[in-house]
């Protein structure tokens, strides 16, 4: 892992030193926000378009299937090279650092955008000049997903775009922003749970006696904790706990950062304020960390190994039937050996703020962007538009793709499998309230500093306030070093 990160940093250093003047001219936006026609190095239909993409984490199977259909429709050969996450990151950085024209389209994780934006072709002019308006339909994208994944200001990608309930391209460009990719896959924290345990009449009766309310889908973190306490038990009467209420991802890892960030957002907190000053060590941040840590250390509603868990271990533990509820970024399944087991899904619970329920599950997305150095920009855009189009996204449902359009989630309501339909409903609703990562060039460093703070508290090295204060000081220094 360290070797990969070092290589990526080297590529980043090369990228940051690339000269803007040597790259091809593309979309121009005037002071009023009007967008000129895109310029490309060739207007002829290419014989081949090459795509650099991720593997299963970004739904490669669905994308490859759609590309085959595009080949039949257009006669253009689509070559898709897929790499697992870390290898893909290195490949993307390397290709763009060399200003290579080998790839026309590139899969872009949202967190990479600030580091790569000078090397990606802006799309707003292509969108305005689209030959197929039914394929682009910006206002069909889930707004939170589109704005977080695709919209950024070229010279200040850390700036949040204007918020809107429906995507308005004119409003985006007039505010100095542009569109840098089209969202294809979006992952958000959801909860898988043992529906068979929740529906058991004995459990329902006993739970109501203990907690004085019904055993039902929890809406708040407090309700969730009650259920986690209830299902943490010794099932075989040997004096040892062998069933737990929930999972958490407590290892010092990106997983613990996004776990904590979800609790932080529930309490109304943020990693940064509008001036990029770290504020996760404020009262809301401390409350979030103490709540998170109490589930592991005080109430002990997680398995003993929770401090070593990331998303992989959580899936394994849930699958074994060891927990009643589990949080992750995909629909977790039960091992067939778990007799009578039935899985259901619900949204990550929130925190009441007056009459309002605040939810803030972490989410992150994959977009498909155009290399600035492609010689086939118009053709590349048309392929990207096709891959992200409403009808094609509906076709992604058979691959369990985490689609990004409202119309695709509406189509999921007609799926024959009730469990799959339930998951899509929860996924779509969660994306509408999700909270993305900070859009900063040194995101990995910021994440690691917060990971250390969370880990220091969970392992008892520091109290919550001290751990977060130390982390905030580290992040503040990192932001100064990065030029913010």
TrEMBL record:
<dbReference type="Pfam" id="PF01547">
    <property type="entry name" value="SBP_bac_1"/>
</dbReference>
<feature type="region of interest" description="Disordered">
    <location>
        <begin position="18"/>
        <end position="42"/>
    </location>
</feature>
<comment type="similarity">
    <text>Belongs to the bacterial solute-binding protein 1 family.</text>
</comment>
<keyword id="KW-0813">Transport</keyword>
<keyword id="KW-0732">Signal</keyword>
<feature type="signal peptide">
    <location>
        <begin position="1"/>
        <end position="21"/>
    </location>
</feature>
<feature type="compositionally biased region" description="Polar residues">
    <location>
        <begin position="18"/>
        <end position="33"/>
    </location>
</feature>
<dbReference type="InterPro" id="IPR050490">
    <property type="entry name" value="Bact_solute-bd_prot1"/>
</dbReference>
<protein>
    <submittedName>
        <fullName>Sugar ABC transporter substrate-binding protein</fullName>
    </submittedName>
</protein>
<dbReference type="InterPro" id="IPR006059">
    <property type="entry name" value="SBP"/>
</dbReference>
């Amino acid at each position: 892992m360290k070797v990969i990160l070092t290589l990526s940093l080297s590529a980043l250093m090369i990228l940051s030193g690339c000269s803007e003047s040597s790259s091809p001219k593309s979309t121009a936006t005037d002071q009023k926000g009007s967008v000129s026609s895109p310029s490309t190095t060739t207007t002829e239909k290419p014989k081949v378009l090459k795509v650099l993409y991720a593997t299963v984490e970004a739904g490669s199977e669905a994308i490859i299937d759609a590309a085959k259909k595009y080949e039949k429709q257009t006669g253009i050969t689509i070559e898709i090279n897929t790499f697992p996450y870390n290898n893909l990151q290195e490949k993307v950085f390397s290709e763009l650092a060399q200003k290579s024209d080998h790839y026309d389209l590139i899969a872009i994780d949202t967190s990479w955008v600030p580091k790569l934006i000078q090397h990606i072709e802006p799309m707003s002019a292509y969108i305005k000049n689209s030959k197929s308006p039914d394929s682009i339909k910006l206002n069909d994208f889930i707004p939170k997903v589109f704005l977080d994944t695709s919209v950024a200001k070229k010279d200040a990608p850390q700036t949040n775009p204007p918020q809107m309930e429906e995507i308005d391209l004119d409003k985006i460009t007039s505010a100095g922003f542009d569109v840098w990719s089209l969202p294809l896959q979006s992952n958000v924290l959801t909860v898988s749970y043992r529906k068979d345990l929740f529906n058991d009449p004995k459990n329902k009766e006993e739970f109501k006696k203990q907690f004085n309310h019904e055993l039902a889908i929890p809406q708040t973190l407090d309700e969730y904790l009650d259920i986690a306490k209830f299902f943490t038990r010794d099932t075989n009467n040997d004096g040892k706990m062998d069933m737990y209420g929930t999972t958490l991802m407590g290892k010092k890892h990106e997983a613990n950062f996004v776990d904590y960030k979800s609790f932080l957002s529930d309490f109304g907190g943020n990693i940064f304020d509008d001036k990029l000053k770290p504020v996760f060590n404020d009262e809301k941040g401390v409350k979030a960390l103490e709540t998170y840590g109490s589930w592991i250390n005080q109430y002990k509603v997680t398995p003993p190994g929770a401090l070593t868990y990331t998303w992989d271990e959580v899936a394994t533990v849930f699958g074994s039937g060891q927990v009643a509820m589990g949080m992750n970024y995909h629909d977790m399944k039960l091992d067939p050996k778990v007799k009578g087991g039935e899985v259901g899904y619900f949204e990550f619970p929130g925190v009441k703020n007056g009459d309002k329920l605040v939810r803030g599950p972490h989410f992150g997305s994959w977009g498909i962007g155009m290399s600035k150095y492609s010689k086939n920009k118009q053709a590349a855009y048309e392929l990207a538009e096709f891959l992200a189009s409403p009808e094609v996204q509906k076709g992604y449902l058979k691959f369990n793709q985490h689609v990004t359009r409202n119309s695709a989630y509406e189509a999921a309501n007609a799926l024959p499998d009730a469990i799959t339909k339930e998951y899509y409903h929860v996924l779509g609703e969660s994306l509408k309230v999700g909270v993305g990562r900070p859009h900063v060039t040194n995101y990995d460093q910021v994440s690691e500093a917060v990971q250390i703070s969370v880990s220091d508290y969970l392992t008892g090295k520091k109290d919550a306030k001290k751990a977060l204060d130390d982390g905030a000081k580290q992040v503040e220094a990192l932001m100064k070093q990065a030029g913010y």
